[in-house]
Task: inverse folding
């Protein structure tokens, strides 16, 4: 639809949009249709039973025969039967839904016909009291019974299933149309009034200022809206905490990166103004250290920002044991520089689907932390275990460890314990580990170290594609 057409028909879009009111009315109309169909089916079933048994014709014929037995005069009996025929067929025409006309015949004791309706067909003399016969290709029910004086025969046309359904479908529709307004109007009013509190809630949210993450402040009277308001308040609370956490993170990041930048500026100035070569070399060395620290910090910040994306990367089936061995090979030079023994306890191969970037972040940061803060000449042990359900990486050292009071904060961003202040670092390694574990659907925890010393970190994540039974 063009812009000109949309402007010419502004209400067309609203008419085509689904609404709860229209859906409720549609379901009520569907209910009316189902009621119509069920009633019609029930009436058809009952009619088929009645047609099959036809007790009314037998009762009518018996009553007519008994009444004629009291008339001894053949002419009088014939006249009575003719009057009965006229009255019965007039009544059938007045009712309107009954097919055709009844046909009668009166015979005396010798089998002579005293009266017969025009078009009355002959019947077999040995016919049962009530039987089904075809007359000119049309189904009829026939009645015949012989008494002391007279034999009475009645031929009644049978209404076809099509005629029955056509008549009764219209008959039922009339009553349903009469009842429909008394049902639709209350339903429509009920839905409209029921949705009014929801519209009020939407208006209250629409009036809020941008950045307002305070509770909704809407007290619904209806029980059905309380879970919705509670869920909105919980969502706003989580967003508020997340925004506050990000604000603190930005402040801490700015503070942390300010230090190496200041050192870079100072040492660049020192290099430019140093009077002697040794002083320039010292300034150049410190400048390179500051640049390395700033580069490491920026890389850690970018990695943490990448892992903060809650959308997990696609898992790829790899040999996790071989991947961990390759990652430890990257950390080996740093461990050798501190004379630290780096060991791995893992299966020869472990093929599992994993998020490779997240796994790499976990292993490198845990091993880097253990080597950086561990004891010179000590040991760092890495244990890898996994099956079709879970994968775990356990890194332990025998260094100074972490006091129990500090352990709950070790995974916070920029947290550096008192024992690690003299070691270069950004305080983001364990935060990256926790975020990577969360992205993989697992968790990270603090454990004991090696030989009763040091500290350990255990990361356990579920294997993608595993469904618990």
Result:
């Amino acid at each position: 639809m063009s812009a000109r057409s949309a402007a010419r028909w502004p209400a067309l879009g609203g008419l085509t949009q689904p609404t709860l009111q229209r859906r409720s009315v549609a379901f009520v109309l569907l209910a009316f249709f189902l009621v119509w169909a069920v009633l019609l089916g029930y009436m058809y079933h009952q009619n088929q039973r009645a047609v099959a048994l036809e007790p009314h014709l037998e009762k009518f014929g018996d009553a007519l025969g008994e009444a004629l037995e009291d008339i001894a005069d053949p002419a009088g009996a014939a006249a009575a039967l003719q009057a009965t025929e006229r009255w019965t067929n007039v009544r059938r025409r007045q009712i309107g839904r009954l097919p055709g006309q009844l046909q009668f015949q009166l015979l005396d004791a010798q089998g002579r016909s005293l009266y017969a309706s025009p078009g009355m067909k002959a019947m077999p003399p040995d016919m049962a009291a009530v039987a089904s016969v075809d007359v000119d290709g049309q189904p009829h029910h026939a009645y015949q019974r012989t008494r002391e004086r007279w034999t009475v025969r009645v031929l009644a046309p049978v209404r076809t299933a099509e005629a029955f359904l056509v008549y009764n479908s219209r008959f039922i529709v009339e009553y349903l149309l009469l009842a429909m307004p008394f049902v639709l109007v209350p339903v429509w009013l009920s839905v409209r009034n029921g949705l009014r509190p929801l519209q009020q809630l939407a208006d209250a949210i629409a009036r809020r200022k941008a950045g307002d993450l305070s509770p909704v402040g809407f007290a619904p009277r209806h029980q059905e809206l309380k879970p919705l308001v509670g869920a909105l308040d919980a969502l706003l609370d989580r967003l508020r905490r997340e925004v506050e956490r990000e604000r603190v993170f930005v402040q801490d990041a700015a503070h942390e990166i300010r230090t190496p930048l200041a050192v870079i500026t100072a040492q660049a100035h020192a290099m430019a103004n140093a009077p002697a070569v040794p002083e320039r070399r010292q300034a150049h060395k410190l400048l390179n250290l500051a640049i390395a620290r700033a580069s490491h910090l920026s890389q850690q910040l970018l990695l943490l920002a990448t892992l903060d994306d809650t959308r997990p990367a696609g898992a790829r089936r790899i040999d996790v044991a071989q991947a961990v061995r390759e990652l430890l090979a990257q950390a080996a030079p740093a461990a050798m520089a501190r004379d630290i023994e780096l060991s791995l306890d893992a299966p020869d191969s472990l093929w599992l689907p994993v998020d490779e970037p997240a796994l790499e972040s976990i292993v490198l940061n845990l091993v880097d932390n253990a080597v950086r803060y561990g004891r010179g000449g000590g040991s760092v042990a890495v244990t890898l275990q996994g099956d079709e359900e879970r994968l775990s990486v356990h890194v332990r050292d025998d260094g100074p460890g972490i006091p129990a009071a500090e352990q709950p904060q070790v995974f916070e961003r920029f947290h550096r314990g008192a024992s690690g202040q003299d070691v270069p670092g950004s305080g983001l390694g364990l935060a990256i580990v926790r975020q990577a574990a969360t992205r993989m659907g697992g968790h990270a925890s603090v454990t004991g170290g090696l030989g009763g010393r040091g500290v350990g970190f255990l990361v356990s994540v579920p294997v993608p594609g595993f469904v618990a039974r």
About this structure: The radius of gyration is 48 Å. The CA atoms of residues 148 and 456 lie 115 Å apart. DSSP finds eleven helices and twelve strands in the chain. The longest strand covers residues 138-146.
